[in-house]
Amino acid sequence: VACFREAVLEFFNAELGERLTTLGYEGLRKMFNYVGGGLIYVRETFKERLQILSSSWAIANSDGSAELEEDSMETIHSEKAAESNTQATQQTSPPEEAPKTTSLLGNQSVPTTFDEMFCFNAAVMGLENRDWMYEVLKSFDAIVTNVANSYRLQEECDVISLRMAKIPGEVQLFEFKPLMLASLRSLVPKGWDSHHESAWEWLWSNVEKVLQKEIGKLAPRGRLVSRYVGSMEAHTKEEVSKMIYAKFFALAPEGQNYFKQSS
What we know:
By secondary structure, the chain is mainly alpha-helical. It contains 11 helices and no strands. The longest helix has 39 residues, at 22-60.
């Protein structure tokens, strides 16, 4: 920032000469200091948040951590079983509840990924009937991994909006955040702190703002588009279709793989 500031000020001084007053020079200097300081703050702040999101998301969907937890649980169960066997040899009437409890714990299916934990918490909180949440969940991995790419983030939110528009019922976006945070706290128990809380709240607040703008607007737009397309003549529809597919395949060539026959 300092190098850029001094280079620009030197350029202004060389070009304007005496016309660049002391007041103007100091004004430009303060402006560059302010802008440069803001850029540095944004870079450092969002860099930390992006690192937190990336690392915690990897842990939340890591199979390795789940395997470690399973191994530790098996070790604990084996130690408890050994202790119960030792007590059984010393006592005339050993308790039957301990082995049964161990077997029940071993048969439980513990959620190990974010999707599984989210569905589990949704059922616990009585929100499992919110179908729109599962549409967000389908694209949530893409949202987290592309949070630094504003264009891709906007694209994912647009796709979610189109999917939610087809789902009947009211959409309350604020209901997603407590489920998201509860699931992440369960999957990232060791390193979770206030910085993680702030980073994930920041992510969802940005997504929520984009989605909120489109709620209730897509259905009327769809009717207008359907009415407009229905008023077209057959040859016009064919020409428009060719133009749409030509642009689509130019932007995303891999999309041709989803068509059974190429035309």
